Each structure stands twice: as structure tokens, then as C-alpha cells.
UniProtKB/TrEMBL annotation:
Species for this entry: Notoacmeibacter marinus
Molecular functions per Gene Ontology: phosphatase activity
This protein's name: HAD family hydrolase
Pfam families: Hydrolase_6, Hydrolase_like
InterPro entries on file: HAD-like_sf, HAD-SF_hydro_IIA, HAD-SF_hydro_IIA_hyp3, HAD_sf
One annotated Gene Ontology cellular component of this protein: cytoplasm
Domain of life: Bacteria
Length: 265
């Protein structure tokens, strides 16, 4: 394994995941602020890329509450912002949203709380720590029956909660597909979000970029698809991952991080 400090001389810029790398949703991870500060001191730009159904502004507010100064990163690129652009292009009449919490997703035009009126389903978050799979399937079934297309703006299959890992928005989207529904995904590991992140970094073509994340199937797979180096951090959803598991995933799924870090400390 390698320490993050050793990566600073190898790369010209970094793309950081947020949840599971910088914080757990409630508090900072040890060494995270210091790692971002070291990038700033070395003149290495950082862009945060997150599978969050919320906008960049909403995520910036959360990060500020958790003690992250906005000067530590050049930009935040969220799957939620990409989804808003996609929704504008689709021009639906009414959007029914599955999200976490009661606050509506910012920027989504024509929201409706009545699923029977919706012609688009937005899957932006999960409350699977208190809503059962059976309840979600019961919510989804009428939408499947009407052939309502779904857009998943947070493809994460798992999410961190105080009770451990629970099904994420990506898993709800997978249930919808399993039931016969049509789903379009935006976010990691698909290329569009990495293209946006590279533009936000503002580096010249050919510069060395490393993606730092805790998910083999999103961060590491996404970096590989984008042709970028990657560093798997054994925090967040990978906190219990054993080196043998990393080797198995590399062998069976083709998921090969360039580097493995115990943490950012």
C-alpha cells in the first residue's frame, strides 16, 4: 500500500470522491482535510466528483458544515447536476422523485408528489435504512405498469448509514429494471461525469490525473473507463475490504486500482 503524500509528486491533478473518502455523511475522515490542503499547497487542483442526486451547491453547503473550506477544491461535479441537464432535454410534464429526506431536489422542473401523474421517475436517493425493499417495490410497480421511464442520478448500489451499509439509489434503480422498468443512469462509472471533471480541473491535455475513491465498481471502474489512474481508499464501503478481495475483483471483474491506500491520513 502507498500513502497519499507519495502520490502528490506523481500526478498533476486529482478527482476525489466525497462520501466514504472525505466523510461518512456525519463527520470528516482523519487526514482528509490535510490531504486536500497538501494538494492546494503543491498546486495540484482537486475536483470533487460525487454520485449525489443533489446539486453542486447543495453538496458545497454540506461540505462546509462538515468543515471543508471551498478553497480546497476547484469545483464539485455531481450526477445530480448532470441529471437536471438531462431532464431539461427530456422536457417531461411531471417528475416523481425518490430521494432522501423531504427537501425537493433543486433544479428539477415540474415536480409532482403524485406518482400517478408522473411521466418521468427520478431516482436521486435512498431511504432504505427505514424503507423496506418491499415498500419500494410497491411504490415502483404502478410506474412500471405505466411504462414510465426512470432516470437514476445516484448510481451507488450501497450507501453508508449509522446502521452500516444499506441499499443505495442505484439498487432501487436495479429493482426497477428487474421489475421491467426502463432506466437511464448518470454519474460514476459512466464517462460523462469524468469528462465534466476533467474540464473543471483545467489541466492541459496529457497531464497526469488520479481518481481517488472507495468504490471498486464506481470509482475504480469509472477511472478505468475514462483512461485515468485510480487510488482505492480502504474507507467507506471498502473499509472491510481485504487485499484478497481486491485481487479477486481484479481477476474476475477487471477492476484494477493503480494504487491502494489504507486511508488519507
Amino acid at each position: 500500500m502507498i500513502r497519499f503524500a507519495n502520490l502528490l509528486t506523481r500526478y498533476d491533478g486529482f478527482i476525489f470522491d466525497q462520501y466514504g473518502v472525505l466523510h461518512d455523511g456525519q463527520k470528516q475522515y482523519p487526514g482528509a482535510v490535510e490531504a486536500l490542503g497538501a494538494c492546494a499547497a503543491a498546486g495540484k487542483p482537486v475536483v470533487l466528483v460525487t454520485n449525489s442526486g443533489r446539486t453542486a451547491d447543495a453538496n458545497a453547503e454540506r461540505l462546509h458544515r462538515l468543515g471543508y473550506d471551498p478553497s480546497l477544491f476547484a469545483a464539485i461535479v455531481t450526477s445530480g447536476d448532470l441529471a437536471v441537464d438531462k431532464i431539461e432535454a427530456l422536457a417531461p410534464r411531471a417528475v416523481f422523485t425518490i430521494a432522501r429526506g423531504s427537501e425537493p431536489v433543486r433544479g428539477v422542473a415540474h415536480p409532482t408528489s403524485d406518482a400517478a401523474k408522473a411521466d418521468l421517475l427520478l431516482i436521486a436517493g435512498s431511504e432504505a435504512d427505514r424503507v423496506s425493499e418491499a415498500d419500494y417495490r410497491a411504490m415502483l410497480q404502478p410506474l412500471v405498469a405505466r411504462d414510465v421511464a426512470a432516470l437514476c442520478s445516484n448510481p451507488d448500489l450501497q450507501m453508508l448509514t449509522e446502521d452500516g451499509l444499506k441499499p443505495g439509489a442505484g439498487q432501487i434503480a436495479a429493482w426497477y429494471e428487474e421489475m421491467g422498468g426502463r432506466v437511464t443512469y448518470v454519474g460514476k462509472p459512466w464517462p460523462q461525469i469524468y469528462e465534466a471533471a476533467e474540464r473543471a480541473l483545467g489541466l492541459r491535455s496529457g497531464r497526469r490525473i488520479c481518481c481517488v475513491g472507495d468504490s471498486m465498481h464506481h470509482d475504480i471502474a469509472g477511472a478505468g473507463r475514462a483512461g485515468l489512474s485510480s487510488a482505492l481508499v480502504l474507507t467507506g464501503i471498502s473499509a472491510a475490504l481485504h487485499p484478497d478481495d481486491i485481487g479477486r475483483m481484479a481477476r474476475d471483474d477487471g477492476l484494477r486500482p493503480t494504487h491502494v491506500l489504507r486511508s488519507l491520513a
